[in-house]
Design brief:
Ig_sub, about 375 residues, Immunoglobulin-like, Ig-like_dom, Ig-like domain-containing protein, Ig-like_fold, six-stranded mixed beta sheet, signal
Length: about 375
């Protein structure tokens, strides 16, 4: 019936009447949230609606509240915070209380670390386990003023394995560019932060950042000036979360760098055939790959382009000085010169191994 619906999510003790008690008795808490509740605009509770914890580790729930003047919150009075789990028939029943800051012993190992008189109700679970996965409701008690945030439960989810860290790279992955590499990890409990390590040089910065929802993230960062040697390099970042018993839960993330660079290590090589031909082969490393190779010949008449492609076949009588140029979108590189000198018909002999710079003599 419409007349029997709960009209407020946050219920003040100084507003309770026999009628509201009867209304509460009719509310079902099987879902962890009162049916048909509407938030009391005079009491605003702020905390994450969903928060994830690691089993065996500590968990911090960022929490604050504001109270409008009509509720007569007095910071000079003793103020206590209460955390409750859903239950029937009345959520505010003592049976549903798991923590009350006015008590020395509580059902759960929790502690309100925030200053309640300053409306900070931040709370820490010292060690949380899978059995504590549930919805949690906050209640403030300030002398005669008592109120519960019934429409804004904090849904605590528990996981058994550590979160994977996240690797991010700012900037364009191109040679000579300076980039910032960051490995970050969720920090459910800043009082016992995770440990981050990676396979980069240890001269990095460590940061702890507060997120917009009040949670925290730990990071390590390093500046790197990229070169072709970084292309294909695998960055591995590890995170270790301390859990009960002096143990750790570990996870890792990996990222392989793809660095763009102009052609490098460009060289020309020679192969001989028995039919009087020589093959000149141009090779180079580049990312993106070489788009085209060009062959040039130096002679007394100057330099001229003689061929395109990575392989240039020529007659053995074409003595001279040759070199190739490898080109991609980022630039080009010229190979050392290859000298072809001397000729004789008949069998071809090649004395000694070919060197990148020198003369190939047929005799």
């Amino acid at each position: 019936m419409e007349g029997r619906r709960c009209v407020m999510a946050a219920l003040s003790d100084d507003m309770l009447t026999v009628l509201t008690v009867n209304l509460l008795l009719s509310v079902s808490f099987l879902s962890g949230r009162p049916t048909g509740c509407e938030e009391d605009k005079g009491f605003i509770f702020t905390a994450p609606r969903e928060i994830e914890a690691l089993s065996g580790a500590c968990l911090q729930i960022p929490c604050s509240f504001t109270v409008k003047p009509q509720h007569k919150f007095n910071p000079r009075r003793k103020t206590f915070g209460v955390w409750l789990k859903p239950g029937a028939p009345i959520l505010n029943s003592p049976k549903n209380v798991v923590y009350n800051s006015s008590q020395l012993k509580n059902k759960y190992d929790m502690n309100i670390t925030g200053n309640l008189r300053e409306k900070n109700c931040t709370t820490v679970f010292s060690k949380i386990n899978s059995e504590q996965e549930d919805k949690y409701y906050f209640r403030i008690e300030n002398g005669p003023f008592k109120i519960s945030a019934l429409c804004k439960p904090v849904n605590v989810n528990i996981r058994d394995s550590a979160w994977r860290p996240r690797i991010e790279i700012s900037g364009d992955l191109k040679e000579m560019n300076s980039v910032i590499i960051t490995c970050s990890a969720l920090t459910p409990c800043p009082q016992s932060p995770p440990e981050l390590t990676w396979n980069l040089e240890p001269d990095h910065r460590r940061l702890t950042e507060k997120n917009t929802d009040g949670t925290f993230t730990d990071k390590i960062q390093k500046n790197i000036t990229l070169s072709d040697t970084h292309d294909g390099f695998n960055i591995t970042c590890f995170v270790r979360y301390p859990v009960d018993g002096g143990k750790y839960k570990v996870a890792k993330a990996e990222v392989t760098l793809s660095v763009s660079y102009a052609p490098k290590n460009t060289s020309a090589s020679i192969s001989l055939s028995e039919d009087g031909w020589v093959n000149l082969t141009c090779s180079s490393t580049a990312n993106p790959p070489v788009s085209f190779f060009t062959w040039f010949r130096n002679s007394t008449n100057g330099t001229m382009e003689v061929a395109d492609g990575d392989i240039y076949g020529l007659n053995i009588t074409k003595e001279g000085i040759y070199y190739c140029v490898a080109t991609n979108d980022l630039g080009n590189q010229t190979s050392p010169e290859v000298h072809l000198a001397g000729q004789r018909k008949g069998n071809i002999q090649h004395e000694g191994p070919y060197k990148r710079r020198g003369t190939l003599l047929f005799h």
